[in-house]
Amino acid sequence: QVQLVESGGGLVHTGESLRLSCAASGRPFSNYAMDWFRQAPGKERERVAGVSYNGGSTYYADFVKGRFTVSRDNAKGTVYLHLQMNNLQPEDTAIYYCAQFKGPYSPSSSVRSEYPYWGQGTQVTVSS
User: Fold this and answer.
1) How many CB atoms lie within 10 A of CB 12?
2) Beta strand spans in 26-88 (E)
3) Which of 75, 70, 96 has its CA nearest to residue 23?
4) What per-residue confidence (pLDDT) applies to 98?
5) How confident is the model at residue 63 (pLDDT cuts 50, 70, 90)?
């Protein structure tokens, strides 16, 4: 059974940090790029960060560069995807999703339809 389960969300204040995790199992996720997306109320889902299948290449949206760090751990059987979020701002409030890209590297031009597997999301709320 394919599962992507996010955790680590919560309520924080401006300037604080959170670390999100995603446990992916049930298929060879270690062969594929993995990304984080987020969706705020009333807005489109947007890509936040991504990491290649082996962790050697990363992508960050401009609005998180310098604040967020994506990483992965290709443990046997389960892949763990992490997102360290520092200096959180109210505009970072959203549901955060992890997703698997269709290939080993996810280019900057990748779109939602190229991600066949998604988690259920974890809520991040940043209060001012």
Assistant:
1) 17
2) 34-39, 46-51, 58-60, 68-74, 78-85
3) 75
4) 98
5) very high
